[in-house]
Amino acid sequence: MKYVLVTGGVVSGLGKGVTASSIGVVLKACGLRVTSIKIDPYLNTDAGTMSPFEHGEVFVLDDGGEVDLDLGNYERFLDIKLTRDNNITTGKIYQSVIDKERRGDYLGKTVQVVPHITDAIQEWIERVAMIPVDGKEGPADVCVIELGGTIGDIESMPFIEALGQFSYRVGPGNFCLVHVSLVPVLNVVGEQKTKPTQHSVRGLRGLGLTPNILACRSTTALEENVKEKLSKFCHVPAANIITLYDVSNIWHIPLLLRDQKAHKAILKGLNLLGVAGEPVLEEWTCRAKTCDMLQDPVRIAMVGKYTGLSDAYLSVLKALLHASVACRRKLVVVWVAATDLEESTEIEAPDVHKAAWDQLEEANGILVPGGFGDRGVQGKILAAKYAREHNIPFLGICLGMQIAVIEFARSVLNMKDANSTEFDANTTNPCVIFMPEGSKTHMGGTMRLGSRRTYFQVPDCKSAKLYGNVKYVDERHRHRYEVNPDMITELENAGLSFVGKDESGRRMEILELRTHPYFVGVQFHPEFKSRPGKPSALFLGLIAASCGHLEAFLQNPIHVKMQTKNSLTNGMPTSKVYQNGIKNKHVNGSHNIYSNCNGVHA
């Protein structure tokens, strides 16, 4: 097994996750099998209990692991399926060591950070690196490890020590360190400054790790004299100093690495030059170029609770982008804070209220993503009502589906107090209830998590057609509440059709309004399995309906499957995400850190 370690220096949010993913793409394009590990130095066992405002979205894996959003980047870029163990946290490591101590595995020993914690880290990396993640038998050729945080952080010290020992243990030719650092340009002098990177590398070397490659983040390509200066003071060959400058979309990053021969530097460090070939990246090249050629827009209103931080909905944004590429449309994401749609905002801030409704009414489609808590719920209900009554394409995910059920019960069945017991425990019409198997005392890892099977009840429904007329689908879940099975008959008699259910038939998974152009709610999270070349079926349906092309897609399921490939091979302009509407207060995110256009993603 060969290992590539990606570390970061100077500041956080430089894009280590995208860099690690792009390194994996280039190595995979060279014919190697690649797996990934993300190390998060926080004490949480996993990301499941963390606020999206703290750490962005919680990405969910097939095995139910609630992990850092960077694992979503790995899965999308490399088209692999990771496990919960591919995300290492300080909490997991310490918990495993303490469990061993309690069992008596260290009997007679004083348990310490060195060697017990550091040994546990190394053993975890070696064990997880051997797990196949690409659907093939046997371990991968290369494991790309991303160390979260910044060099010098107190909480990452045990991992730095462990990785230093690990690099020595696996030996030269099996370990390559890529250090991502910042080369800022001061407006006063307009000169690329190398001192921050010099200090970062000095700190890294002082901790026992020597970088083989420097990946320098800057607004423009590094000047030759700057490379020479960095080479001299950081003891890294000039050929191994790579510039990751601002580009229009992140699909250009693997191409930047290839064009600067980063793959040769990595392969040389891993003694794989004679084994791997030249990277084949025609599809990536075409995808990156087509994303820069914007044409007809499609406006999707994202009605949510965390609109101030786009990382909170990162996978949803990516799934929308993948679908818009397939439909050859420029994606315009309009952020609408759910609370701004509510009557209380109309009283307190009428201008904000009017602006939010204007944005909603101008949208071609409406999406209500998942979430927790009662803040903004009424606004989401109003958005679902507007979509239903005005025949606007609508997709509700998790809470978004539950919101659609509540709105339908209130407006159509005249159940004025219809609600979820999450928001009103005393409602007389509980449309959404707490799942019987859930825990009300422990929050972490107690939801219905991971890949679950949904069986289609109505073969000719829109959802089944979009999925290719299959009998069932496996999608990832993350929820504590579900639609009340005792109210299904009444809801269906009024026109709400539950076209997808679990194996028991009592848990509702997919709902549709048959008389609506596209009104779909799903209990699962289809965004987690969307890929650049394989867009999620339901997101594809939303974009197609918003463009007025849904009927063509439904009449030809094969056309749905081939659409993405065609859009990347016929040279037609496709799409890009514009974040208009409410200003995006994006902080510390990795998905658009390479963009030099305000609010442009890929």
From TrEMBL:
<feature type="domain" description="CTP synthase N-terminal">
    <location>
        <begin position="2"/>
        <end position="272"/>
    </location>
</feature>
<comment type="similarity">
    <text>Belongs to the CTP synthase family.</text>
</comment>
<keyword id="KW-0547">Nucleotide-binding</keyword>
<dbReference type="InterPro" id="IPR017456">
    <property type="entry name" value="CTP_synthase_N"/>
</dbReference>
<dbReference type="GO" id="GO:0003883">
    <property type="term" value="F:CTP synthase activity"/>
</dbReference>
<dbReference type="InterPro" id="IPR027417">
    <property type="entry name" value="P-loop_NTPase"/>
</dbReference>
<dbReference type="Pfam" id="PF00117">
    <property type="entry name" value="GATase"/>
</dbReference>
<protein>
    <recommendedName>
        <fullName>CTP synthase</fullName>
        <ecNumber>6.3.4.2</ecNumber>
    </recommendedName>
</protein>
<dbReference type="GO" id="GO:0042802">
    <property type="term" value="F:identical protein binding"/>
</dbReference>
<dbReference type="InterPro" id="IPR017926">
    <property type="entry name" value="GATASE"/>
</dbReference>
<keyword id="KW-0436">Ligase</keyword>
<dbReference type="InterPro" id="IPR004468">
    <property type="entry name" value="CTP_synthase"/>
</dbReference>
<keyword id="KW-0067">ATP-binding</keyword>
<keyword id="KW-0665">Pyrimidine biosynthesis</keyword>
<keyword id="KW-0315">Glutamine amidotransferase</keyword>
<dbReference type="GO" id="GO:0044210">
    <property type="term" value="P:'de novo' CTP biosynthetic process"/>
</dbReference>
<dbReference type="InterPro" id="IPR033828">
    <property type="entry name" value="GATase1_CTP_Synthase"/>
</dbReference>
<comment type="pathway">
    <text>Pyrimidine metabolism; CTP biosynthesis via de novo pathway; CTP from UDP: step 2/2.</text>
</comment>
<dbReference type="GO" id="GO:0005524">
    <property type="term" value="F:ATP binding"/>
</dbReference>
<dbReference type="GO" id="GO:0019856">
    <property type="term" value="P:pyrimidine nucleobase biosynthetic process"/>
</dbReference>
<feature type="domain" description="Glutamine amidotransferase">
    <location>
        <begin position="310"/>
        <end position="543"/>
    </location>
</feature>
<comment type="function">
    <text>Catalyzes the ATP-dependent amination of UTP to CTP with either L-glutamine or ammonia as the source of nitrogen.</text>
</comment>
<dbReference type="Pfam" id="PF06418">
    <property type="entry name" value="CTP_synth_N"/>
</dbReference>
<dbReference type="InterPro" id="IPR029062">
    <property type="entry name" value="Class_I_gatase-like"/>
</dbReference>
